[in-house]
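Sample intake sheet
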Amino acid sequence: MEVVHSIEEIRREVRNLRNRSATIGFVPTMGNLHAGHLSLVKDAAASCGAVVVSIYVNPMQFGPTEDFSTYPRTLEQDLELLREAGTITVFQPDDEAMYPHGTTGQTFVEVPLMGEMLCGAARPGHFRGVSTVVARLLNIVQPDLAVFGKKDYQQLAIIRRMVADLAIPVEIVGGETIRAEDGLALSSRNRYLTAEQRRQAPCLYASLLEAAEQVRAGRQAFAQIEQAALQELRGCGFQPDYVSIRRQQDLQPAGAGDRVLVVLAAARLGQARLIDNVEIVL
C-alpha cells in the first residue's frame, strides 16, 4: 500500500497506474474508517483496476460551532484497515496542499438551491465546503469512477449535479448504506452517542421505514407522514432538524405524480447529529 501526501506524488502514482492500463476508482473520506467506508472501497475495486482513497478532514465544510477540532482522527487504524482491504493508494494531504491560499482565499464551488435545503439550511455553508473539496480532489486524482455513500444522500445528489454541470469526466457511483444489526447507519459521529443514546438511535431508521411504508401503501398526504415521523423522533429523545419526502433526482418536494422518491431525516441526539434516508420506487 502506497501512502502519499503531495499533489505531485498522487498524480505521479496515478500516471504509473494508468501506464499499467488500470482504471482508477476513488473513495474520498475524512478518515475514522468503518465498515461503511470499506464497502465503498470494495465497490470501487469491483469496477476498477486500482483504487485511491483520500483521508482529509476538510475544515471548509465545518461551521464555526461544529466539531472540526474534535472530529475523530484515527490515521494509524485507518491505514491498517486499508492495508487489510488490499492494494490501495492512500492520498493524505495536509491543509497547505488542499488550500494553499487558505480556506477564506480559496476559489469555491457551490451548487445553488440543492445545497441550501435540508442539511444545507441547518448547516449554512456546509455543502459549499463539500463541493469545493470534492471538486479539488477529483481534479487532483482524475479518477474514472468515484464512490460516495448513499447515507449522505443530499451530498451524493449535489456531487452528481456538480460533476454534470462542470463536465468533470468521472462516473459517480452511490454505495449502499451499511448498518448495524439494529438498523443504525454506520457513521463516524456515532461515537458521540452515550450508551443510552446508542440504544435510542435506531429509532431514526425505524421512523423512516414507517414513513416509506405509508408512501408505498399509497398515502399521498406527505406532510402528515412527515409530521408523524417528527413526532415519533421527538418521543424517542431526538431533536429533529427535518423529515422530508423528496424526489430522488433533484431533492425537490415530492408531488402526487412522483414515483421515484426518498424520505430523508436529520436529527440530533445528544452531541451527535445523525442523518439517514430510505429510497422509495413506486
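Comment: The chain has two domains: 2-175, 188-281. The first strand starts at residue 2 and ends at 4.
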